[in-house]
Amino acid sequence: MAELTYPDALLARILKSVNTIAMVGASTNWNRPSYFVMKYLQGKGYRVIPVNPGAAGQELLGETVRASLSDIVEPVDMVQVFRKPEAVPPIADEAVAIGAKVLWLQLGVRHDGAAAKAEAAGLTVIQDRCPKIEFGRLGGELSWFGVDSGIVSAKVRRAPKPSTRTEADVQTGTETFGFETRSVHAGAAPDPVTGARITPIYQTASYVFDDADQAASLFNLHSFGHVYSRLSNPTVAVLEERVANLEGGRAGVAAASGHAGQFLTFFTLLEPGDEFIASRNLYGGSLTQFGLSFKKLGWHCRFVDPTAPENFHKALTPKTKAIFVESLANPGGIVVDLEAVARVAHEAGIPLIVDNTLATPYLCQPIAWGADIVCHSTTKFLAGHGNSLGGVVVESGRFDWGQNDKFPSMAQPEPAYHGLNFYETFGDFGFTTKARAVALRDFGPALSPMNAFLSLTGIETLPLRMERHVANARAVAAFLHDHPKVEWVSYAGLSSSPFHDLAKKYLPKGPGAVFTFGVKGGYEAGLRAVERVRLFSHLANIGDTRSLILHPASTTHRQLSDEQRLAAGAGPEVVRLSVGIETADDLIRDLDQALRD
Amino acid sequence: MSPAKTNRAEDGFATRAIHLGYDPADEHGALSTPVFMTSTYTFESAEIGQELFRGERDGYVYGRTKNPTQSVLETRIASLEGGEAAVAFASGMGAISATLWTLLKASDEVLVDQTLYGNSFALFMRGLSKFEVKITVADFTDLEAVKKALEQGKPRLVYFETPANPNLRVIDIAAVSALAHEAGALAMVDNTFASPALQRPLSLGADLVVHSATKFLGGHGDLIAGVLVGPADILKQVRLHGLRYLTGAAIAPLTAFLLLRGLKTLELRIERHSSSALAVAQLLADHPAVAAVHYPGLPDSPYHELAKRQMSAFGGLVSCELKGGVEAGMTLMNRLTLASRAVSLGDAETLVQHPASMTHAAYTPEERRAHGIADGLIRFSVGLETLADIKADIAQALDAVTR
């Protein structure tokens, strides 16, 4: 089926021109989506008349339930359908008969034949969308949950309220803004009260409720809003939306660190006893988290060599629930064939999770190659200044959680929310909503507003910095490649690298700025190099404006055996660099004097 | 601190902008400079306290005059501007006024250029003149006029901006500084529009450089700050008098931290601001609705040759006048959707404003005419967004004006 796309201007026009909505399939159960969508729309100023033959004559949210559309005597602007697709055709015919101007089929409901017929009769038809979600997206409320609104504008966001009819009120999105523009603007808008141009730091723990009813709605996830900063925060939400937008995803959820983001991801996906497959070439901290700590929770990780995609296929079992890789693997040099690994995952009915930390969305767009979830340690290149920890998890919105019974946490009633079904209710941002509403709520690794703020200002210069990081890394790698004291250089930007072609495909703007090289003379020579540098900082981080250097064998991989060190690419002679954005000649001069006899 | 590691004058601009003046070894190895949120400092002994107060010993006494985060910032900016010392302030106006209060007394004379930021103009014409400091105005693009003004009076200080706010006039820093020195005056330059990444007035002969650090130095529109750079003896006087008890315009530690973050990408940002501003200037110059464009990077600008001599690129500010005058300018501003209508400049976001009613409203209409600030002038601070998006936004707004 062709993908449905509706211009924001069309949705905004409908939501502004409509006053009376007939809701077919309105439920009297307070925890069914039709009930709380009706309540939400009433709260925004619409009159909603419920239609449900099974509840005809009953009182529902102040309205009498009608048996059919033809029982409504008032003029109806829009007919909204909360029924299964096969029930749509007669409802569409009735909508035409009563003179409705709009036929709107709820998220998950689509019937192209009935839609075409209604359109031929002069109706505007929207399918597979939720008016509550679209209203919230256009007005900015959805952004509070880290969903990418697609809106890039320097104007205050205002909801398309039925009472206000001026064209200028509604901000409408467009897909045509460049990466640099979105790095500065996505997710952010001037403060509606003060006009402050820069996103404020909302250093607040909790948020005041309008009244008890609104509070209950928020706790039940029936409407959008902030309750407590462990779950959501306005400053953090801007970061979530920005990263989601830059990754081409649907929504993001932030966490206190990259590791915390991975925990939220796997807690939302896995049940005790489940398995997942991960590349064996990962950041050392991830190897430990997956291989050792997750074991305690009954989650089992199988590590495979990522350079041959069939290795993932061979490791699949009926219990496998996900595949995890780094797009550009730490400590650098290895590029994973994302498209091929995504195919393995999707044939098995499971999502591909990609850690895009080393590449950043500027260099690599994993979702475009089939990734379903993208993880970041924003501490690195995204925030970019080495001054704030953070993590963000982005979902593509394309994975079908209901295609099999592997993901009860997504597609079955959630006991922690009175039986709410997250996939049914939130659709393509159900995963991050679930991660927020349960894992973030109950385990609490929330990102601080101050860190979110610093990460946002960092991302403003992401494209500029990445260009320079890559240019400097290329210059340093070329210098080392020709240096008599250097045994080898593992940088995918060098034509001698076995990953050179994959890098050109997946990282067209350059293969990052983190890589390793081997010093002639083994352990002592490696140690000597890191001790002699003056401009490079000797420490265990990457993705700073400053150039960083590390000798894994004597630091991060010290506890391992010789064999383990070799397998992890941390042999005695290995030195890792994270090349900064200083003047390239200064970096080369520093390494040259450090390698000299 | 190990000087060999962090104070290498021979390092490149970007390297110094990232490293200079801070050694992680001093602070638990923390790679990012700590934010010292402290108002006061303990003295090891009463005697040491006395020595500090007498100025016989260097050290921290109280947050109004000095803070460790601020010190790293000051060292770094002094190096980037090529000066001996720097002092940071709570705002650019704080920096200017603390300096002037320190250097001037009643009956002194100051010679200023005819185009100044509105509140600098107000400080000179309405503020200092109340205290019997005599202010003379001249057109600094006319060196004969500067010479004449210097001969007629006895100025203690010569003050100008280049490029000037808002009409981007460019003043010959070397020539004006030389004339000032011949007359026994100090030359003080507001380098806010160019930043040290493009122009270093001290190397051209100026004595003092002042900045609104809120702009390109900070770069993200999230702070208010100022800095002064120049000879150590003058700077010490400004810190101990102008800052400590004349204005009290102390920079917040967090602001100093944010400024250090901004400096790390200064060179990258200013390159992009400049290349995008040139493209915007060309777009404006080619549009039928535009009567005049002011940008020293345009080859037909009367300031192009001079700007090429003293700047390495032409900065992120562009101003223009529309054929439809003030009304057309208002329409243009209201039609922009990516650019924000806001004062300030040097942010990642593109900003647009109308000087006559906003930044330069402190001038009377007559003064604006006399000082060459057209009522129809619109000023753009070109941001870091994708150039095609910036151009598309301005083009559609200009087309709306033409319709």
Short account of what is shown:
The complex is a heterodimer of chains A (597) and B (403). With 597 residues, chain A is an alpha/beta fold. In chain A, the strands form five sheets. Chain A has a seven-stranded mixed beta sheet with strand order 8-16-15-14-11-9-10, with helices on both faces. A five-stranded parallel beta sheet of chain A has the order 2-1-5-6-7, sandwiched between helices. In chain A, strands 17-18-21-20-19 form a five-stranded mixed beta sheet.
The total strand number of chain B stands at: 12
The proportion of residues in beta strands of chain B is 5-15%
Quaternary state of this entry equals heterodimer
**CATH domain fold name of the largest domain in chain B:** Aspartate Aminotransferase, domain 2
What is the number of helices of chain B?
A: 15
**Number of separate helices of chain A:** 22
Taking all residues together, what is the mean pLDDT of chain A? 92
SSE arrangement of chain B, N to C: HHHHEHEHEHEHEEEHHHEHEHEEHEH
Largest sheet of chain A: 7 strands, mixed
Task: Describe the overall structure.
The complex is a heterodimer of chains A (597) and B (403). Chain A is α/β, with parallel strands linked by helices and 597 residues long. Chain A folds into three domains: 8-129, Rossmann fold, CATH 3.40.50.720; 140-458, 3-Layer(aba) Sandwich (Aspartate Aminotransferase, domain 2), CATH 3.40.640; 462-595, Aspartate Aminotransferase, domain 1 (Alpha-Beta Complex). Helix content of chain A is 35%, strand content 14%. Chain A has 22 helices and 21 strands. In chain A, the strands form five sheets. A seven-stranded mixed sheet of chain A has the order 8-16-15-14-11-9-10, with helices on both faces. A five-stranded parallel sheet of chain A has the order 2-1-5-6-7, sandwiched between helices. Chain A has a five-stranded mixed sheet with strand order 17-18-21-20-19. In chain A, helix 6 (179-185) packs antiparallel against helix 8 (234-246) and helix 9 crosses helix 16 (430-443). Chain A starts with 7 loop residues before the first helix and ends with a helix. Mean pLDDT of chain A is 92; it is low at 164-170. Chain B is of the alpha/beta class. Chain B folds into two domains: 12-264, Aspartate Aminotransferase, domain 2 (3-Layer(aba) Sandwich); 266-402, Aspartate Aminotransferase, domain 1. Helices cover 41% and strands 14% of the residues of chain B. In chain B, the strands form two sheets. Chain B has a seven-stranded mixed sheet with strand order 1-7-6-5-4-2-3, sandwiched between helices. In chain B, helix 8 links the parallel strand 4 (157-161) and strand 5. In chain B, helix 13 packs across helix 15. The radius of gyration of chain B is 21 Å and the shape is globular. The N and C termini of chain B lie far apart (64 Å). The model of chain B has no long low-confidence stretch (mean pLDDT 93). The chains are: A alpha/beta (597), B alpha/beta (403). The interface between A and B is large, with 44 and 43 residues.
